[in-house]
Amino acid sequence: MTASHSAPLIGWLGIVRLGLIQSSLGAIVILMTSTLNRVMVVELGLAAAIPGMLVGLHYAVQLSRPRWGFGADAGGRQTPWILGGMAVLASGAVLASLAGAIMQANLVAGLGLSFLAFVLIGGGVGAAGTNLLALLAIRTPPERKAAAAAIVWIMMIVGFILTAGIGGQLLKPFSFERLILVTAGTGLISVTITALALMGLEKRRTARAHSPAEDAPNIEFRAAIAEIWAETEARRFTIFVFVSMLAYSAQDLILEPFAGIVHGYSAGASTQLAGVQNVGTLIGMIAVALAGTLVGKSRPGFMRAWTIGGCLASAASLLALAAGTQALGANWPLVPNILALGVSNGVFAVSAIGSMMTLASSGRASREGTRMGLWGASQAIAFGIGGLAGAVSLDIARLVFADAAASFSIVFAVEGLLFVVAAWLVTRISRPEGETTTRLPILPAGEFLLTEGTKS
Q1: Which of 175, 202, 229 is the last residue of a domain?
Q2: Same-domain pairing of 41 and 94
Q3: Is the pLDDT higher at 156 or at 422?
């Protein structure tokens, strides 16, 4: 049975408002996983494993996502969990910056505070992110879900770009006092935007005509998870999320070393290569959003087909990288290949999110938040394992093979095969009732990106 909510569905403006929240969430996270990571390694001279473990900790805490989603389902509203999660996230970010300053004088005390900070960061991301997606799934019309996913994720990337640009300027010259002020300011702005964006957007859901057994208000968390796991499509989608995100995240820690070792790129050049991939991701996301307009008449299976296509295109890009590097080494045209990988990843990511939003409203009623939480936890596990697995696999391959290019090629090939498996898993998932192609409104030039547009 498909869950239908009595609250009115949101229009394009409502989707943009939720996109602003995702942008705000991303702005805080990028400061923690990128800027603070660099500060710990460069300014403080710590081993790279320390910030790596802290980032891993924030993923581990996100295993609590199903619980946050279940709490919102039980209360009938996502808004308090989104706003509360954003406040916790902002507080954790400020504590993390403060911990960096403390490490200069007392490393142990600073690391202890960092541990607490990243627990808060993980909890805040889990509570806010899970219920933001659940609210988007509940309140977005079926025919707009692919576009909504694209819009929200494009806006998140815009948030990354703005934070990196503006924050980078504000941190010159660097000092820990500046870092704390920039983080606190970003957190305050993000919480304020979230509160304003949510204002009047959600009212408590009214009772629906379901049997007491179906809507059981006092159901325990474990029973709710067991119910969802018993749903064939939800269970298959959970496995798909894990496999696809494992392949997606395993690229992160090896692409830049690959560019340096095999292709001789400098640190700056390899960073620019990462920028090329991000541009490609943005192009892929926009392509999914615009596809509905180009297709014209709505057709069923839109998001499912694009998810499969994105997985297969990602696999082809990685396998081309593996084969090309093995055959031509440093002569392989790396930049076009990485751009293609970025486009493919963007198509896959945003269409998978659109499919997730559709499936969240399928099955037993009033479980959208719990389903999103289950899939978010699966993604968090995959991201936590993926980066480490990619790096460890590379180390093992380099021990076995003297040729660095061969070692990288093997790892890229395995990642490509994982994407092929992910595409096959999607074919095993039945198309949800009501899934249709997205159609975007015709907007004046330049206005599309204002109405919307990884990696938590």
Answers
A1: 202
A2: yes
A3: 422
320 and 427 belong to one structural domain: yes
Same-domain status, 195 and 238:
no
Identify the pLDDT of residue 88: 96
Q: Are 179 and 228 contained in the same domain?
A: no
Residue 169 clears pLDDT 50, i.e. is over it: yes
Residue 401's domain is classified under what CATH number?
Answer: 1.20.1250.20
Average pLDDT over residues 53-63: 85
What φ, ψ does residue 113 adopt, rounded to 5°? -70, -35
C-alpha 432/C-alpha 3 separation (Å) is 12
Indicate whether 231 and 182 sit together in one domain.
no
Q: What is the mean pLDDT of the chain?
A: 78
Q: Do residues 290 and 168 share a domain?
A: no
Rounded to 10 degrees, the C-alpha dihedral 358/359/361/364 comes to 160
- pLDDT, mean of residues 163-169: 78
Q: Give the whole-angstrom CA distance, residue 71 versus residue 259.
A: 45
Peptide bond connecting 444 to the previous residue in cis, omega within 30 degrees of 0: no
Asked whether residue 236 falls in the same domain as residue 307, the answer is: yes
- Give per-residue pLDDT as tens, 237-285: 889 989 988 888 877 667 767 777 777 777 567 667 777 887 888 898 8
Res 365 pLDDT > 70? no
Q: Is 231 among the domain residues?
A: yes
* Entry field: residues in the chain: 456
Higher per-residue confidence, 413 vs 297: 413
| Residue bearing the bigger pLDDT, 290 or 417 | 417
| Res. 442: pLDDT tops 70 | no
Q: Which of 202, 231, 262 is the last residue of a domain?
A: 202
Does the pLDDT of residue 184 top 90, yes or no? yes
The tally of domains found in the chain comes to 2
